[in-house]
Amino acid sequence: MSVLSYLTDRASYAVLSTNEKSSIDTSIATLKNRLAAHFKAEVIKREFRFGSSTRGTILPRALDEQSDIDYMIVFADSQYTPQTYIAWLKRFAEARYGTSEIYQSHPTIVLQLNHIKFDLVPATESWLNGLQIPAGSSWISTNPNDVNETLETANKNNASLIKPTIRLFKYWNATAGYPYLSFKAEKWITSLFYWGCNNQKDYFFNVFDNLSTGGSVKWVDAEVVRAKSIIARTRQYEKDDMPASAENEIRKLFRE
Q1: Which of 28, 146, 165, 230 has the fewest CB atoms within 10 Å, i.e. the most exposed one?
Q2: Rounded to whole angstroms, how far apart are CA atoms 5 and 239?
Q3: Residues 175 and 255 sit within 8 Å (Cβ to Cβ)
Q4: How far is it, in rounded angstroms, from Cα 112 to Cα 92?
Q5: 100-136 pLDDT, tens per residue?
Q6: Where are the beta strands (DSSP E) in the chain?
Q7: Distance (Å, rounded) from C-alpha 32 to C-alpha 45?
Q8: What is the spatial distance between Cα 2 and Cα 111, in angstroms, rounded to a whole number?
């Protein structure tokens, strides 16, 4: 197996299976029903899924224990404080998912099920401010799916290699102890230029070529230096016509 075929294979593996997708869809349907049963009809204005699961960049839990489903609940009445809505969702989760792990991770309520984790995000909406989510004791405007269209366009313009590149990077990020926030990494990778890149290996290596060191967090820098060194050795093995050594080297990136 070449480095290119190995990375292509890993990117394909880092996709939710049909069973996982079905399980998530079932859990979302259950969540909708339980929200409707818990709150009066006029309390919730609308609700929807957002985040990596809507972009095709979510990883299976086997590859990323932090994989979750972002789910926004927009409340009709916007007169209360952010903590009030968070408390409502916490009481809902405790009442309707009593045996599950539930905790607050501002600005969300985390609902940990056996197969997936939900981040329940309270929001309000107005003509003037649009969607708003909690930011401490105040509110901040948001467009939760703003990156989706940008990603779709970039992926289409780059031979459908941006999404698998993001999945590969997120897989590395998970094995490296999460040096980067997932959402910010996705936006950054989408914004990069990929001049001269022709295949999955080129795209993936280009991301690491653009990573910088010299930040304030030493362990993050150490992980980046390690990754860059592995890629440099992989490239050298390929240049020396040593494909087996190159493949063995790139596997180290994911701690295989």
Answers
A1: 146
A2: 17
A3: yes
A4: 14
A5: 889 988 789 999 987 789 999 999 998 888 999 999 8
A6: 44-50, 68-75, 101-105, 108-112, 117-126, 130-135, 138-141
A7: 13
A8: 41
Q: Tokens representing 155?
A: 């992926």
User: Which amino acid does the sequence have at 255?
Assistant: R
Single-letter amino acid code for the residue at 30:
T
How many H-runs (helices) and E-runs (strands) does the chain carry? 10, 7
Residue 205 corresponds to which tokens in the numbers above?
């290596």
Among 220, 196, 198, smallest CA distance to 4 is for 198
Question: What token pair was written down for 133?
Answer: 């989510």
Distance CA 243, CA 252 (A): 15
For residue range 44-77, list pLDDT tens digits in order: 999 999 999 999 999 999 999 999 999 999 999 9
For residues 124 and 73, what is the distance between their CA atoms, to the nearest angstrom?
8
Q: Are 230 and 248 in contact (CB under 8 A)?
A: no
Burial grade of 243 (CB within 10 A; 0-12, 13-18, 19 or more) = middle
Q: Which residues of 23-46 are buried (b: 16+ CB within 10 A; e: fewer)?
A: bbeebbeebeeebeebbeeeebee
Residue the block writes with tokens 């609308």: 46
Task: Give yes or no for a contact between 229 and 147, defined as CB atoms under 8 angstroms apart.
Answer: no
Would you state the structure tokens that stand for residue 217, as one six-digit string? 């967090």
Specify the amino acid at residue 86.
I
Q: How far is CA 219 from CA 85, 90, 107, 188, 225, in A?
A: 36, 34, 27, 20, 10
pLDDT tier for residue 156 given thresholds of 50, 70 and 90: very high
- How far apart CA 224 and CA 211 sit, in angstroms, is 7
